[in-house]
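User: Quick sanity check before I run a bigger batch. Here is a single chain. Can you write out its predicted 3D structure?
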Amino acid sequence: MKKRILKNVEWSILICCIMLLIIGLVALFSATQDNNYDDFNKQIIWTAISIPIMLIVFFVDYNTIAKISPIFYGFFIVLLIGVLFTPPINGARSWFQFSSTLTFQPSELAKVFVILFLAYVIVKIQERDSREINRFTKLLIIFLVLGVPLGLIAIQPDIGTAVAFIIATVLMLFVAGIDRRYIIAAALLVIILIPILYFFVLPDHAKNRIDVFLNPGLDPRGAGYNIIQSKLAIGSGQIFGMGLLKGNQTQLGFLYPKSTDFIFSVIGEEMGFIIAGAVIILYVVLITKTVYVAKTAKDDLGSYIAIGICGIFLFHMIENIGMTMGLLPITGVPLPFVSYGGSSLVTNFICIGIILNISSRRQKTIFVD
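Assistant: Done. Predicted structure follows.
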């Protein structure tokens, strides 16, 4: 049994993650020399914690994990409420701070259990008839499951993580066979809501980020400073980079926060286009292989979970790399396996453990026509 499970595993996914992790650790080593490698050392510790957790998740059948997901979903709803009463850090109430160096971000781990619970709910809705997903009352149940954590995360505010939830849910519903009329209606609703959200809902700092994204020179020493420095860093790396510990923007303190949001800028400046391009290729392979796992999962539950996790990775990659290049607004979204962050790293490895779990038990293609 164990041999069959190991034989079916999509090992290329794990290889991509390990390679991204190694590149991230090298970049963190260079980016944190000015603070005695503090974030680098902590990332090593978080890696040592994350890998055993991934192995545990891998060996426990994902159907079992999905069945207990309502309990974890409820637990993280409580945490997301609780974090709103904590002191703000960088303008957001997203972290429980246990000490000056130890923080926990519940919205990161909530991604996993919201996806698991959503997949579980969709499967239950489709038990008798797969077309039940297109009944408006059933969709309301799904949107309620999503809406509670989504609203709590938006209040923090953490718009980037909230969008990641939405992308994951859209992909899950698409694979579940949602009718095109809902897709068209949703697209029209987004078009209508964008100007309303901008003028009446978004806080001033979020509007400022959008304005600076459209015109970085609007406030070059304030809100536009980070993106200007990031683009300078990536551009100055050219083909082969300026060399580790030798990047001007990185080592002279112009790039901030260089170990989290702008770690890709560090890679571009010090390792050059070749390594930066390799990072993008690794993500493309990771995402396409995850889609393949979703396509070949043995049941609908596995397919929905895999494609939901794929949506999380896809959004994080595009948003983080896009914002460092000035192609997308800055949202503070980390780069999976590369950016520093304990909560993020544990979450990403749990996601990989689940994907490997699903791939090890796959038997047939189940995408809805």
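The CA atoms of residues 29 and 40 lie 6 Å apart.

User: Great, the batch can go ahead then.
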